[in-house]
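Model: Ready when you are.
Researcher: Fold this.
Model:
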Amino acid sequence: MFFWVLLSAVVSVDLTTAFFYSETKLECSGSEFVIPLYGFNTISFVPTSREPRTIVFKDNKVEDSRYNLRHGRVVLQEVTESNAGRFYGQNDITRYFETVRLVVKDCSEEVSAYYGDEFRLTLSEDTAVLQFSPNVSFSSDSVTLWNRYSPSEAGRGQVSVGVWILDEVTEADQGHYTQRDRKGKFLSRHRLQLEDNSMEESLYYGDEFRLTLSEDTAVLQFSPNIGLSSDSATLWNKINPTEAGRARVREGVWVLDKVTQADQGFYTQRNSKGKFLSRHHLQVKGE
């Protein structure tokens, strides 16, 4: 009697799940990812971002252009953060079996530089394209900095003897630099982190702000924000050292009388060629 009860229990279990198991795979962004088929006729994907399920593979054909079929396996040639999620196999209309949970990690090589420094990146022999993106996902925000076979695509920076050089880094240069071969295949990725080397100045409302100009200083610029861009203004120019309002220069010292909240920001000194020399960050307390 016990034998028949046990046999009935075993038969009632859905044994199809015994042949499929879920595994978690950790892949670096940019690497290749292989999805085993396990005999499934359909592979679907549900992203971690909780977007709708999409079909990756069905009836021996790849349904998503980012994937290809190779030796009976579905291959994603370049993993990005958008590929993080769960892959499911399906043998019929109603049953899904989770096969792989993909976790994507940024494995970029970390490099750092100070504001205004020169940034140098060695290009490998196989590198044909250098791309930049502020984010690791590398979607529509990526730009081409250098193309060996199409020089007209070049962005900022220049290449000399196999080294890409950026003369002066700013906040806009923080992000990911990806090298690819002639076919667009991922080769390597570096992540540039900018370190702030500003000299901090803290004054009270109404105080006098004194800034010593170096012998090489030709221009003094001001920006209320850390990134000197279109919002920067020239406060003093060695060639035409006019004085206006509360500012003046005395014996190599730039002086600003009675500082206010509007004077908070970044004061940058540059030489006659526009090269960065130093930067001071002023904070005003009170009022």
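Researcher: Now this one.
Model:
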Amino acid sequence: MFNPVVTVSLLMVKAIRWERAIHTIFAQLFASIFASLVVSGILPGPLLVVTKLDPDMSIARGLFLEMFLTAQLVLIILMLPASSNKPMYIGLTLFVAEICGVYFTGGSLNPARSFGPAVVAGFTSYQWIYWLGPLLGAGLGGAVFSLFDFLKIDR
């Protein structure tokens, strides 16, 4: 669990307790800042991994793209049973989501991934979409999973 929205979605479906979720989210954010500082210290020049919107992309479209791509990722994570193939399916899902989103929003899908570089390199005025979009996506993915679970739709 390196993604706060995955942690939130696991909390939503009662897969983890809220105390563990809070500690995990703080650890994820701290690790993101620390990793960004390490990369900034090792590589010359400015930190080029800051997520930013394409100039032709509106903030609303960026927000909804982040939301839907994150919802897709969260739903796949929650729907897959524990098996040795689960990491491959999650990786492929993340790959497809990144292909769809990287040119428009930077393909964050992860508030910690956007937060660490923003702390080190400077915040953009629309950093909030990298929090709100994925959190809404976690809610959407968790709600769809709960609906499937309620309707007894097989995984």
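Researcher: Key takeaway?
Model: The mean pLDDT is 92.
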